[in-house]
Amino acid sequence: MTEISSMVISHKKAKIEEMESAWHGDLDGLLHHLYNHEYVYECVVLKTCNRVEIYVVSPKSSSVLFSFAKEMGASTHIMDFYGHDESLEHLLRLAGGLESMIVGEDQILGQIKELYAYSKKSGTTGKILDTAFDKAIQVGKRIRNETRINKGSVSIGSAAVDLAEEILDGLTGKTVLVIGAGEIGVLVAKALAEKDIEAIYIANRTFKKAEEIAYELGGYAVRLNDVQTQLKNADVVISGTGAPHYILTREIVEKAIKGRDKTRKLLLIDIANPRDIEESVSELDNVELCNIDNLRVISEKTLKMRKEEAKKAEDIIQDEIKLLNLQYKRQRADRIISDLYKQIYDVRIREREKAVNRLCAYHTIGKIETEVLDDLTHSIANKILAEPTKVLRQAAELGNDEFLDVVSRIFCLEKDRVKVEKMKPDCEKMKSDCGIKVEKIKPDCESGIDRISEKSN
Fold first, then answer.
1. Which CATH number belongs to the domain containing residue 279 in this structure?
2. Are 267 and 361 contained in the same domain?
3. 362 is in which domain, residue-wise?
4. Which of 30, 153, 232, 241 has the fewest CB atoms within 10 Å, i.e. is most exposed?
5. How deeply is 396 buried, as exposed, middle or buried, from its count of CB atoms within 10 A (0-12, 13-18, 19+)?
6. Which residues bind substrate (predicted)?
7. CA atoms of 278 and 308, how far apart (whole Å)
8. Same domain, yes or no, for 142 and 19?
């Protein structure tokens, strides 16, 4: 049976350098490289600063993911491979914030929405993954509405501010420079706005965006090229851009701190992936560099504080997993029913045409006679299929997979159901085990399921 499998590389097992090296191409390249595989029918890629996760629908999912892991060149020691049930539970936990470095953080839900939407727009998703991700997003919202798991320091941005506050014994009277006005940068800036700091500067590649955020928070906008000048007066620099190269090199920082008060520490916090700040800057006097790995400390404190709320979230997830599995069972029954209707309707149409041709040999057949024959065969087919439809749906809800398998085999249904658009040109010469030509599989054959209830009446 074709189900979901996943491969997960996250902060739980991998260091930031290992996650950075896990895939060297862009998201689009990764997504389509997977989807072009012969046995991958659907796929979604989640790539953030804390994780690289791949979800595929394939009849050979394990071998596909292991093969891809080898291509990535990353150690299998930092990877987790999940089957269908584990993948669903992990995805719901991820959306609920239970798998994040900081339990309950809100940013991951927005990232799941965005990256799933990207895959859907790229045409790499289908019914199975659409169902899973729709449910995950719904569960993520429910957990945040019904628990307090996202209260307090919940995002990487706010955790970076908390870390700075802890290292410097408070941020009162400090000058802070935020590099990057993307989603993470905005979270950092908003968290800083709640502190009693002296001044906040926002630097960004697009100056207009920096101006908008600075105006909203009562700060100052800085052009990215002028960052070196601002470093001279900053106490804290938090950088979280999406740049593929270093924003702050050792040379830039070294020049900026010349002539600076030697008793004054410069704290640099790099929350970007790939990294924004060259690691060797930590060797400079009075310069301290922290990155995402340092936020694990904050995560541990937050975990203790939210332990009780996490238990409530776990209960919600278990309830929703049951509903999701029931939904998949119904969908499987619907696929079988859809195939069965198609098979019977093909017979109906062929036999109706034979009857019309035989009658035409004896006398003229008009429009009324043809419509009567069409209505008759249509009604017979629906009446024959009405009871099997009910039984199949009941079997699915009861989890009677053996019964569904028997029906599929008897009627030669669900034989390697692949998406028509992924078939190779020479596949048209092939025949299924049932002797039905591949060319007879219509792209919209599953859409017939929407009309089943109407037909059964």
1. 3.40.50.720
2. no
3. 334-379
4. 232
5. buried
6. 48-51, 100, 105-107, 111
7. 39
8. yes
* Contact between 348 and 381 (Cβ < 8 Å): yes
Asked if 44 and 133 sit in the same domain, the reply is yes
Detail the residues annotated as belonging to a binding site for substrate.
48-51, 100, 105-107, 111
Look at residue 176 and give its three-state secondary structure.
strand
**Nearest-5° Cα angle at 187, 183 to 189:** 115
Tell me what percent of the residues of the chain surpass a pLDDT of 70. Answer: 87
The predicted pLDDT at position 335 comes to 84
Based on the domain organization, do 183 and 273 belong to the same domain?
Answer: yes
pLDDT(425) > 50: no
Residue at which a domain ends, from 379, 413, 448 = 379
Same domain, 264 and 209: yes
Helix (H) and strand (E) counts in the chain = 16, 10
Which residue, chain included where needed, has tokens 């009677």?
A: 400
Question: Burial of 7 by CB count in 10 Å (0-12 exposed, 13-18 middle, 19+ buried)?
Answer: buried
Q: Which residues pair with 176 in a beta bridge?
A: 200, 236
What integer pLDDT is reported at residue 399 of this predicted model?
A: 78
434 within a domain of the structure (yes/no): no
Q: Annotated catalytic residue: which of 43, 49, 290, 427?
A: 49
262 and 181: one domain?
yes
User: pLDDT per residue over 183-199, tens digit each?
Assistant: 788 888 888 888 889 99
Q: Is 50 domain-assigned? A: yes
Asked if residue 451 is part of any domain, the answer here is no
Is residue 365 situated within a structural domain? yes
Residues 146 and 247 both lie in one domain: no
Known binding-site positions: 48-51, 100, 105-107, 111, 180-185
- Contacts for 84 with CB less than 8 Å, ≥ 6 apart: 3, 4, 5
| Cα Rg of the chain, angstroms | 29
Token pair belonging to 452: 């089943």
- Count CA atoms closer than 13 A to 343's CA, side-chain side: 17
Please tell me the total count of domains within the chain.
3
In this prediction, residues 287-314 reach a mean pLDDT of 80
Tens of pLDDT, residues 343-364: 999 999 999 999 999 888 888 8
Structural domain ending residue among the three candidates 110, 128, 152? 152
User: What is Dmax (Cα atoms) for the chain?
Assistant: 109
pLDDT at 455 over 80: no
- Other CB atoms within 10 A of residue 71 CB: 9
49 is known as an active-site residue: yes
> Which residues define the annotated binding site for NADP(+)?
180-185
pTM above 0.70, yes or no: no
